[in-house]
Specification:
272 residues, alpha/beta, Rossmann fold, seven-stranded parallel β-sheet, 7 strands, 14% strand
Length: 272
């Protein structure tokens, strides 16, 4: 039986840290038959462990982890050229890299705001521009054409007074997704966004530890339970759960889905 992504080649950014959504999506794509996944990140500290994990899955030859500054147009050209040079095609782009610098309007510097916008919004723009010429040919290989998937978080529709850069940048990413879907449909490129809710990634766990250190919660377990209780299901998502949504949007099953927002948030978004 063929996998849902059989023969496809994907670039997935923000996949350089164990336990995050980018790594989970990379492994899920390969399990579903992807020809190759080119994972990228600005950090390489855990590259060996991630590659060992993928090797253990049996996908060593189909996985690459490249250093990548997603805010650099030149770096995008290098990553895309490396992908095409080695694997001959590009069918899916997953813009997953993200940055959060806490602070409201009065606490956030212009430099910090610009840095967050560069990673969370400008990088989506740059990645789209760099990949579209190659994604356009995916329709010759797959009924669903090319796919761009932007990881935008529930922050895109939830106001927050203490994390303005993150929420504003994710909201801007949603509008970029919609506009791109309208523009690129003629080239049979689908552009969608996923909005994870409380997901137990390393960054979130570090945040919980910070809250505990500040005396806001007695333990990380208590903090996680409080966050999970924010949605009707009363549970937190794991990166592997979110990866299923990334698989669907990259597959030909979603050939008529573009400009859509997948709220992978346990229904917390129904309150906004």
């Amino acid at each position: 039986m063929l996998g849902r992504l059989e023969g496809k080649v994907a670039i997935i950014t923000g996949a350089g840290r164990l336990g995050n959504i980018g790594v989970a999506a990379s492994r899920a794509y390969l399990r579903e038959g992807a020809k190759a996944v080119v994972a990228t990140d600005y950090r390489r500290e855990e590259a060996g462990e991630i590659e060992a994990l993928v090797n253990a899955d049996g996908h060593a030859g189909a996985f690459r982890l490249l250093e990548h500054d997603v805010t650099s147009e030149a770096d995008w050209a290098r990553v895309v050229n490396a992908t095409i040079s080695e694997f001959g095609q590009l069918d899916v782009l997953v813009n997953n890299a993200g940055l959060s610098i806490h602070g409201g309007v009065m606490q956030t510097s212009l430099e910090d705001l610009r840095q967050v916008m560069a990673v969370n919004h400008d990088a989506l723009f740059l990645g789209t521009k760099a990949c579209v010429p190659h994604l356009a040919s995916a329709i010759d290989r797959f009924e669903g054409g090319g796919a761009i998937i932007n990881n935008l978080s529930m922050a895109s529709y939830m106001p927050n007074a203490t994390n303005i850069g993150y929420h504003v940048s994710k909201s801007a990413g949603r509008m970029l997704t919609i506009c791109s879907a309208l523009e690129l449909g003629a080239q049979k490129i689908r552009v969608n966004s996923i909005h994870p809710g409380v997901t137990m990634t390393p960054i979130l766990r570090e945040g919980l530890e910070s809250w505990v250190a500040q005396g806001m919660w007695e333990s990380t377990e208590a903090a996680e339970a409080a966050l999970a209780a924010m949605n009707p299901l009363g549970i937190a998502s794991q990166p592997e759960d979110t990866a299923h949504a990334f698989v669907y949007l990259a597959s030909d099953e979603a050939k008529f889905v573009t400009g859509a927002s997948i709220y992978h948030d346990g229904a917390i978004g129904l309150r906004y």
